């Protein structure tokens, strides 16, 4: 098989990860609203709420209303998470505080080998795009974590109007990089990455990172 001309890279679990679990972060922010909750219970509740969620993609929403749609999508996931641990209704402002917290770089970190790998691939002349089932916060996160300058494009499902395992996100990235499916590989950590790559006609390299928080 020929070496690729470009790489499409998943973000969460591939390039970056959380320093602490979602549940611990949710519990910390909830404590600011007077709630004393078990982080492990929140971890399980969030995982279930996320699995049951519709795609984080808004094909019929204009750019002017996209942030509102993103915040609403996450508000519903947050409400479902807290309802599962007995908190209903959600304290006013908690959902917004959580959305804003995950927009900062504080909860996130870069996997240790990633910066050198991206720099090496760029030196080799590969075209690189990040393709993520996430929202527009990813642009600022990658910039703040020092990765955005190492890639040629960043595409998120909320803006693209389609999420993996559908192939449209990858197809849009190929268009931006001016590559055909045969010229690019996709690197990700999930079955959705594999299915999206297969549907788009790309080879997929699936990472098998340890589940959980990112540690150095």
Description:
Strand 4 (127-132), helix 6 (137-144) and strand 5 form a beta-alpha-beta unit. The protein has helices spanning 22-31, 39-51, 66-84, 94-101, 114-123, 137-144, 157-160, 168-177, 191-200; strands spanning 6-9, 16-18, 108-110, 127-132, 153-156, 184-188, 203-206. With 216 residues, the chain is α/β, with parallel strands linked by helices. The strands form 2 sheets. It has a 5-stranded parallel β-sheet, sandwiched between helices. Strands 2-3 form a two-stranded antiparallel ribbon. It has 2 domains: 6-17 and 108-206, Rossmann fold (3-Layer(aba) Sandwich), CATH 3.40.50.1000; 21-101, Haloacid dehalogenase-like hydrolase (DNA polymerase, domain 1, Orthogonal Bundle). Helix 1 (22-31) packs across helix 2 (39-51), helix 1 crosses helix 4 (94-101) and helix 3 crosses helix 4. The radius of gyration is 18 Å and the shape is globular.
Protein topology:
Layout: E1 6-9, E2 16-18, H1 22-31, H2 39-51, H3 66-84, H4 94-101, E3 108-110, H5 114-123, E4 127-132, H6 137-144, E5 153-156, H7 157-160, H8 168-177, E6 184-188, H9 191-200, E7 203-206
Parallel strand pairs: 1-4, 1-6, 4-5, 6-7
Antiparallel strand pairs: 2-3
Key structural traits:
single chain; alpha/beta; Rossmann fold; DNA polymerase, domain 1; two-stranded antiparallel ribbon; 7 strands; globular
Identify the strand order in the major beta sheet: 5-4-1-6-7
Could you name the CATH topology of the largest domain? Rossmann fold
The CATH architecture name of the largest domain reads 3-Layer(aba) Sandwich
Please give the radius of gyration in angstroms: 18 Å
Residue share in β-strands: 5-15%
CA-based shape: globular
Count of the domains: 2
Separation of termini? 34 Å
Mean pLDDT: 95
Q: What are the low-pLDDT stretches, counting only 5+ consecutive residues below 50?
A: none
The secondary-structure class comes to alpha/beta
Query: CATH homologous superfamily of the largest domain?
Result: HAD superfamily/HAD-like
